[in-house]
Amino acid sequence: MNFFNKIVRFMYGRYGTDNLNRFFLLLYVLCFILNLFLRQNWIFLIELMLVVVIFYRTFSKKIHQRRKENQLYLKLKKIANKPFEIITKNWKDKDHIYKKCRKCKTILRLPLPIKRGIKHTKCPNCKKKLTIFAFKYQKIEIIKNKKI
Ligand SMILES: [Zn+2]
């Protein structure tokens, strides 16, 4: 039996890696880089703890519990990312611009600007006038409605 088979056999029935572990790994790398400059013992201690946690989670046989932890992490991540929702949407979708209506908090999808200038449109949900910089007038779509 070669080395690879041995690893496969060892990992059988064990949890492996997931989003939470990747997050811990990123945290570890950040701590490691930070500690190259600061050289603090407490940062080293955090690094050590992270490594122990990563190995423990990867080789754990309690798959159900690890999956639950990962689910909780994903939920918290979603909540933490909420204030940046519009920024990430604008980053990912290059064909539209996302904007939040100040009155009803609905997220609106607007067409890309063609000509520079100040334009006025209406929020289709609450009929509040929105002033937008540099948009060609087109149909505005509601992406997310707070009331629903
Ligand atoms: Zn509105």
Which key features would you list for this structure?
binds zinc ion; alpha+beta; 5 strands; 2 domains; 148 residues; two-stranded antiparallel sheet; single chain
What does this structure look like?
- By secondary structure, the protein is an alpha+beta fold.
- It folds into 2 domains: 3-83, no CATH class; 93-144, no CATH class.
- It is 50% helix and 16% strand.
- It is built from 5 helices and 5 strands.
- The protein has helices at 3-11, 19-38, 41-58, 63-81, 85-92; strands at 96-100, 107-111, 118-122, 129-133, 141-144.
- The strands form 2 sheets. The chain has a 3-stranded antiparallel beta sheet. Strands 3-4 form a two-stranded antiparallel sheet.
- Strand 3 and strand 4 (129-133) form a beta hairpin.
- It is elongated and about 70 Å long.
- Zinc ion binds next to loops.
Spell out the blueprint of helices and strands.
Blueprint: H1 3-11, H2 19-38, H3 41-58, H4 63-81, H5 85-92, E1 96-100, E2 107-111, E3 118-122, E4 129-133, E5 141-144
Antiparallel strand pairs: 1-2, 2-5, 3-4
The structure holds zinc ion.
